[in-house]
Every structure is written in structure tokens, then in C-alpha cells.
Amino acid sequence: MNGSAHRTPKVEEFTLKRGPAGLGFNIVGGVDQQYIMNDSGIYVAKIKENGAAALDGRLQEGDKILAINGNKLDNLSHGAAVELFRSAGEEVHLCVQQRPLLQNGPTSSRADGESSSALGTWTLLSVVVLAAATVGFMVYKRLQLNPRGPRGPF
């Protein structure tokens, strides 16, 4: 094997103790606000610096949260998931599927405390490519319908 990063994402369970600023992370996703196409799961969008999740170190940006205190997050709206986190109590038991690694070798950490989500980068890149292809197709079709260019009152 060549050390390819394609491997089954690991599922991990652990408990976070709520800090003065809460659990210390933001979430995205839900049936009404899908973060990943055809996946209504709840994902970690941002780990807040010096928050409970950052200090614990096990939760990472891009991780999918499968359950909170035994409540599965399948088929929930974003608001319903947020409410589960808000009402979860001081100690919150999480079941998390770690984000898949999309590169060879170890992941890198930035010295300034920021981290990047390869998943978010690929999603943004896909949207940009799709938008460019759509605009190109529209221009092509317009030229087919009117090969001599636009006509106006000039």
C-alpha cells in the first residue's frame, strides 16, 4: 500500500464538560440546511479557541456528530439540533464520526490556532466549478440562438 488516506472514518464516543462559554463549537447541517449534498447530518463548523472542545482536543472541525446524550441526530432540523445542545446539561456525551482524511500523510496544525476543513474547501471548489460551467453553458446556448450577437437600438 502507498499510505493513501482513504480509510473508514473512526467513530468515537466521549463526554465534554460545558465551560463558561458553553461547549465551544458551532454546528452546521440538518434536514433544512444540508451542509453536504444528500446528507442531513450535523457537522462541526468551527472550534472556538480556548473553548471546552478546543481544550479537550478530541472534536475537530468537519467531524459529524451522530448523537448527543444518546439522542441520534438523524433527520433533525438545524434548530432542533441546536436546541438539543442547549438543553444537554453540564456534561454532554457525544458520539462523533471523525472527518475523513483527504490527503496523504499526517494532518497539519497551524501555529495560530486556526484549522482548515478539507471538506469545506472541496465543497466550495465544487460550487465554484458548477457555477462556472453553468454560466459557460448559458453563454454557449445564447450564441447558438443569436449567432450575430446582440441587437439593440443603436
UniProtKB/TrEMBL annotation:
Name of a matching Pfam family: PDZ
UniProt GO cellular component terms: basolateral plasma membrane; cell junction; mitochondrial outer membrane
Places the protein is found: Mitochondrion outer membrane
Gene3D superfamilies, per database record: 2.30.42.10
Subunit organization: Binds (via the PDZ domain) to isoform 2A of SYNJ2 (via the unique motif in the C-terminus). Interacts (via C-terminus) with RALBP1. Interacts (via PDZ domain) with ACVR2A (via C-terminus) and ACVR2B (via C-terminus). Forms a ternary complex with ACVR2A and RALBP1. Interacts with MAPK12. Interacts with DLL1; enhances DLL1 protein stability, and promotes notch signaling in endothelial cells.
The protein, known as: Synaptojanin-2-binding protein
Subcellular location, principal: mitochondrion
Ranges that cross the membrane: 119-140
Domain called PDZ: residue spans: 13-100
PROSITE patterns membership: PDZ (PS50106)
Listed PANTHER family: DISCS LARGE (PTHR23119), DISKS LARGE 1 TUMOR SUPPRESSOR PROTEIN (PTHR23119:SF51)
Record's keyword terms, sorted: Membrane, Mitochondrion, Mitochondrion outer membrane, Transmembrane, Transmembrane helix
One of the GO BP terms on file: receptor clustering
Gene Ontology terms for molecular function: protein kinase binding
